[in-house]
Design a protein that fits this description.
The protein is α/β, with parallel strands linked by helices. 25% of the residues lie in helices and 19% in strands. Among the domains are: 4-77, Ubiquitin-like (UB roll); 248-436 and 443-462, Cytidine Deaminase, domain 2 (3-Layer(aba) Sandwich), CATH 3.40.140; 481-549, no CATH class. Helix 11 packs antiparallel against helix 12. The protein starts with a strand and ends with a helix.
Length: 551
């Protein structure tokens, strides 16, 4: 029996687990918090709720059991340091311990040493310190903390990295130039097809295929119906479902994802972060596909816009409602030359789990829904899944995946068990009377329960450092209905938006996805389609629209 108990420790910049002795005292808990946060036990302000209204007032000598918290429950830390801590240089703006320095207190020392420094020199010192500490101009926190603006440092020689998909010495589009990337975990699908064709070069006509160069087909894992070889109640090798052998898929249908809408992603994540990661969110990704020069025959998904449907979320997940605007969205995105390329969702981090079994199955259903015809003659999906997770130090990590074609087919044929609630495993359901299901082989042995990581396909991703004039859409701050209390965008919100962008050209302030959706409802869909086409062409007829909107 375990002698320790685990709680979740949450603060505006921290989301982690904390392990303490079951028979320990409150002081033991505070000492563990001090090890993680560097906030002295006497200075800690700990609460039962995220609103910081129910403070934990138990004495340090009380037992931890007196808190009456179950294992896995959260405690909330108000990590705003007291005045006793933030006085290393008598500067109230500091937000760190006594032995640390920041922009404010270093600058204060500079003032005491050289009182005649000019305002220009002060600004230069601050900027230099910000860069050294990994802070951006938009950061509002002290050193040692993170926000969306400093997820990754900006390097003028390469793309901004959300997260490389390799270890030290590896390379991906985030950290390499125009040369091809070698030793990638998965090869591009077109390269996979071309390599197969090369094996048959000179053995048959170019326009014909054989078993060696045939593209992968969609496999059915169900018993073949109406087999002509025998009566319906019998079975033969021809109509039996094939076995499924679990292996990592060697190819992927998308090699890299480029996010051109970093500002919009940050805005999408802000309500989640402010709510201490407790209310999960999701959105659909819109953009287009292009060739990727970093991979042989590579495919790149370029994301330009998010759409947040009406949704309900809690700590465990998020579910979209039936969306009455979906038809208008399809019409608008066609005029922008966009398509739905994937979805993004927030989730809590599980140790040792890239995607939980539920999310893998959901990704498989999305991929099956968004199928396209490949030039080789087979049908494939390029629908990506983006998971955003908090890590132990309060950062946001974006990970991009697809699931294998095998997983997609097994989910399509309803082979998986819907009753299993374990996040770390997938189980095959029990066959119905007279039904035959495929046998799953893992490491050479049959099994009915297995690790879903076999189905995961990793995809590299990043944000272009220089995206000037690449975007079709130019702004990302138009009011979003699903974030408003009543789900309605008011005329005042519209007026405030155009006042904010009063100095921008119509081609900039009108180039917003949610603005076009608003036009489709406020005026009509045909007007929205007309302006979507104009945005794509880069020229807006602003006069008439300005008069209609009265802005």
């Amino acid at each position: 029996m375990s002698t320790t108990i685990i709680y979740r420790l949450i603060s505006p910049v921290l989301f982690t687990r904390i392990e303490v002795p079951q028979k320990g005292k409150i002081l033991d808990l505070k000492n563990e918090i001090e090890k993680i946060t560097k906030i002295p036990a006497k200075e800690q302000k700990i609460y039962f709720d995220m609103q910081h209204k129910k403070k934990i007032t138990n004495k340090d000598t009380d037992f931890i059991s007196s808190l009456k918290l179950k294992e896995g429950e959260a405690i909330y830390l108000d990590n705003t340091p007291s005045k006793d801590i933030i006085k290393p240089t008598n500067e109230n703006k500091c937000n760190h311990g006594i032995n640390e320095v920041c922009i404010n207190c270093v600058d204060s020392k500079k003032k005491s040493q050289k009182s005649n420094n000019s305002e220009t020199n002060k600004k230069n010192v601050n900027e230099e310190l910000r860069k050294k500490m990994g802070l951006t101009e938009k950061c509002t926190h002290g050193p040692g903390q993170k926000c969306l603006y400093c997820i990754g440092p900006i390097d003028t020689k390469q793309e901004l990295k959300y997260k490389c998909q390799h270890g030290e010495g590896g390379k991906c589009p985030n950290c390499i130039g125009k040369e091809f990337i070698s030793n990638a975990k998965h090869i591009s699908f077109d390269q996979f097809i071309n390599d197969k064709k090369q094996k048959c070069k000179g053995t048959h006509e170019i326009n014909t295929v054989c078993i060696n160069c045939m593209p992968p087909s969609q496999i059915s894992y169900l018993k073949k119906k109406n087999c002509p070889n025998h009566p319906p109640e019998q079975i033969c090798n021809e109509c039996m479902p094939p076995n499924a052998i679990l292996n990592r898929q060697v190819y992927r249908h998308v090699d890299y994802v480029s996010f051109l809408n970093k500002e919009e992603i940050e805005s999408f994540l802000q309500p989640w972060i402010k709510g201490y990661f407790q209310k999960q969110r999701m959105a659909y990704l819109f953009g287009y596909y292009a060739k990727d020069p970093n991979y042989p025959d590579g495919v790149r998904a370029v994301v330009e816009a998010l759409y947040e449907p009406p949704q309900i979320g809690d700590e465990n997940g998020v579910q979209p409602y039936n969306d009455k605007d979906i038809e208008n969205i399809d019409e608008i995105t066609k005029e922008l030359s966009f398509e739905c390329v994937g979805w993004i969702f927030t989730t809590l981090k599980e140790k040792g789990v890239a995607l939980c079994s539920y999310d893998i199955r959901k990704a498989a259903r999305y991929q099956q829904e968004y199928m396209i015809n490949h030039p080789s003659g087979c049908k494939i999906s390029r629908f990506i899944t983006c998971a955003v997770k908090p890590n132990d130090v309060g950062d946001c990590e974006i990970e991009v995946y697809m699931v294998s074609d095998m997983c997609q087919s097994l989910e399509r044929d309803h082979i998986f068990d819907d009753t299993l609630k374990d996040k770390k495993t997938i189980q095959i359901r029990k066959p119905k009377k007279g039904e035959i299901l495929p046998t799953i082989y893992m490491e050479g042995k049959p099994t009915n329960k297995f690790d879903p990581d076999f189905f995961i396909v990793n995809i590299a991703h990043g944000v272009p450092q220089n995206k000037k004039d690449q975007n079709i859409l130019k702004t990302y701050d138009f009011p979003i209905p699903s974030r408003e209390p009543k789900g309605i965008v008011t005329k005042k919100m519209i007026s405030d938006y155009f006042k904010k962008h009063s100095n921008d050209k119509p081609e900039i302030k009108c180039a917003n996805f949610y603005f076009l959706l608003y036009i489709s409802k406020f005026i009509d869909i045909e007007t929205a389609k007309t302006y979507a086409k104009q945005i794509y062409q880069g020229k807006i007829d602003w006069g008439l629209l300005k008069e209609i909107l009265n802005v």
